[in-house]
Amino acid sequence: MAKKESRRMQELRKKVEDRPYQPLEALSLLKETATAKFTEAAEAHIRLGIDPKYTDQQLRTTVALPKGTGQVVRVAVIARGEKVTEATNAGADVVGSEELIDEIQQGRMDFDRLIATPDVMPQVARLGRLLGPRGLMPSPKGGTVTFDVTQAIADFKAGKLEFRADRTGIVHVMFGKASFSPEDLLVNLKALQETIDRNRPSGAKGRYWRTMFVSATMGPSIQVDINALRDMKSEAA
Questions:
Q1: Report field, pTM of the whole predicted structure over 0.85
Q2: How far apart are CA 146 and CA 27, in angstroms?
Q3: What are the structural domains, with CATH classification, of the chain?
Q4: Considering Cα of 49, then 52, then 56, then 59, what sign does the dihedral take?
Q5: Which of 44, 49, 62 is nearest to 169 (CA)?
């Protein structure tokens, strides 16, 4: 039985017209429809013309959001030797070697991003079944397998996000907080669009961009005119 929609959501839906909005107009409306009792995230849901079951049509990459995510990002690092000290000095929240791998296997998950140095990846591999479904498995494509742990920690704490297309070719990304100004949200959304264009899979045929919707966490979906967004000049500061 379908869950009955709340009166709040019914009222919010009345504010959204069934049409693609200009980017800044859509983001202003997103803020207007963020009426929950907590600070909602700003989310983008993008349907691409790809079929990720083929390896040359998969999209997995990172985006550096110029205006940040609005979140405190807890970073864990698995490394050995001097890299453990380096990660601690660089501000990692959780640092360890084999003992941290064991703790994660036993259920430790007090982090938002996991970075690993290449030399420990054979041991980290056994965490795949645990970390994969949570989107936490380190990967070279995601910038989370690296010896440059200082830079990686700084990037992810400053607003770098890893994202991927799901099995239906849809990308779901949080690109800020509904408390951001529409202009700052637009800078982040533009950075996301440019990253998706720059990382177009080699096997993507035909029309790459299908639809883009934005919403607050508890708000209705608002369609964005993707061509208008792509035609805009980047204003990343």
A1: no
A2: 35
A3: 7-69+160-231 (3.30.190.20), 75-158 (3.40.50.790)
A4: positive
A5: 49
d(CA 162, CA 157): 12
The per-residue pLDDT for range 162-187, each reduced to its tens digit, is 899 999 999 999 999 999 999 999 99
Tokens 């453990």 identify what position? 84
* pLDDT tens track for 4-49: 778 888 888 888 889 999 999 999 999 999 988 999 999 999 999 9
Cβ(175)–Cβ(43) below 8 Å: yes
The angle that helices 149-158 and 82-89 make with each other, rounded to 10 degrees, is 30
User: Is the model's pLDDT at 236 over the cut of 60?
Assistant: no
The C-alpha atoms of residue 93 and residue 154 are separated, in whole angstroms, by 12
For 57-79, the pLDDT digits (tens) are 999 999 999 999 988 889 999 99
